Amino acid sequence: MKYSREAEVPSKSCKAYAPYRRVSFKNTHETSKAIRGMTLRRAQTYLKNVIAKREIIPFRRFCGGVGRKAQAKVFGVSQGRWPKKSCELLLQLLKNAESNAELKGLQSDHLVIEHIQTNEAPAMRRRTYRAHGRINAYMSWPCHVQVILTERDEVVPKVVSKEGEKPRKESKKKLKRQRMMATE
């Protein structure tokens, strides 16, 4: 299997791939975009929360006909869903990637989702019977999913000192108001 991208440091990364999975391509695309860049533990927790409807997947690209939900405000969008089947597939894929990482001797607590991609697989055809003897297509749109996890060193938060801190830039409106108050 050829991945669309290779890891920057192959010795500190692991891969997993799920071809021809019968889950909605559009839902899986939005779900994979939501977890890109997350740590492995956070992504697993997030997907479990989506299945339990405690968090939501924001729909940005394939959002025609998607209802508006209050939980989506966190992501700066108004539309979202809880695609259970896509989340379960990605949880299995992340579990597989984690097993591959342990086999390579990587620490699973430091793994980050560096690359995740969803591609359309060939459509699966069925038929449905309509009124007046007609027949319509009844398609499913499966997908291929690939993920690359990379081990990152522990991130140390940046300490900002009070002395070297830049003064906050005041708005023109606020400065003008202060000058007016000073003249009165």
Question: Which descriptors would you attach to this protein?
Answer:
three-stranded antiparallel β-sheet; 184 residues; single chain; alpha+beta; 7 strands; flat; two-stranded antiparallel sheet
Can you give a write-up of this model?
A hairpin with a 5-residue loop joins strand 5 and strand 6. Helix 2 runs antiparallel to helix 3 (84-104). The protein has helices spanning 25-35, 40-51, 84-104, 172-183; strands at residues 13-21, 57-58, 80-81, 111-120, 127-129, 135-137, 143-151. The protein is flat. The chain contains four helices and seven strands. The chain is α+β, with helices and mostly antiparallel strands and 184 residues long. The N and C termini lie far apart (76 Å). The chain has a three-stranded antiparallel β-sheet. 30% of the residues lie in helices and 21% in strands.
Question: In summary, what is this structure?
Answer:
The chain has 184 residues and is α+β, with helices and mostly antiparallel strands. It is built from four helices and seven strands, in the order E-H-H-E-E-H-E-E-E-E-H.
Number of helices: 4
Distance between the termini: 76 Å
Report the biggest beta sheet as strand number plus sense, adding barrel if it closes.
3 strands, antiparallel
Helical fraction equals 25-40%
Beta strand %: 15-25%
Oligomer class: single chain
Number of strands: 7
Mean pLDDT: 92
As a whole number of angstroms, the C-alpha radius of gyration is 23 Å
Overall outline: flat
Order of helices and strands: EHHEEHEEEEH
Low-confidence spans: pLDDT under 50, at least 5 residues?
Answer: none
Q: Going across the major beta sheet, what is the strand order?
A: 1-7-4
